[in-house]
Amino acid sequence: MADQSIISALILGLIEGLTEFIPVSSTAHVLLAGHFLGFESPGNTFAVLIQLGAILAILLVYFQRLLSIVLALPSSPKARGFVLAVVLAFLPAAIIGAIAHDFIKAVLFETPALICIVLIVGGVILYAIDRMPLQPKYKDIMDYPPSLAFKIGLFQCLAMIPGTSRSGATIAGALLMGTDKRSAAEFSFFLAMPTMLGAFTLDLYKNRNALSYDDVTVIAIGFIAAFVSALVVVRSLLTFVSNRGFAPFAIWRIFIGTAGLIGLWLVG
């Protein structure tokens, strides 16, 4: 395995962890960085499989919270309602993702210009929403009604288009439907767990025969880098969002999308 592949996997893993839970599209960042680094992965599966590192990071940070919810299920209607809300929010993306998986990976993941344009458009939309004088009705994710959660799940389906951002779509949808910024980001965390785990499992199954030993090694390096960098983000994001909102992420999206288009124009 070439040293360049190891270095690229390390860089891409760090990018994955740093961007997975913020509304800038980790998939877009990993795919664009991989494109300019000349990094190739069978079926573009690297970008999805290293998400397991980010998944484990958020499970670690929220382990006590998850355990308390599980233990409260037999006796707490609020705990059962929250689990139902997460399941309902997860279902739309699970169904559409399973049906459209091959098209998404073979067509959309192979179109860097589209990814850049979606980054820019999504950045403009996120900035506009962040600046709206919205009056939140829901400030605690445990109080999200099932109907609200399902609608957030529909917004998550927009993230099937690389560059949209799973967290960006769910957060924007949540804000428009009456949540505050902190709880919108936190619900996105919880929704990420089944969504990312489902995407990881499906992609691993679909590409099980295409992966070699070297691919597994490169993915393992990316996984570890993603785990470490995601830990840092998950531990600090809610405080950052509470103080600064989502405008910095919107500006970053526009910058990266524009830089990507210029890079594609210059070097292809």
Descriptive overview:
Helix content is 76%, strand content 0%. It has 268 residues and is mostly helical. It has one domain. Helix 4 crosses helix 10 (181-206). It is globular. It starts with a helix and ends with a helix. 42% of the residues are buried. The model has no long low-confidence stretch (mean pLDDT 87).
Number of helices: 12
Low-confidence stretches: none
Strand content: under 5%
**What is the typical, i.e. mean, pLDDT?**
87
Q: How many structural units, i.e. domains?
A: 1
Rough outline: globular
Helix content: over 70%
Q: What is the distance, rounded to the nearest whole angstrom, between the alpha carbons of the first and last residues?
A: 26 Å
Radius of gyration: 18 Å
Q: In this structure, how is the largest beta sheet organized?
A: none
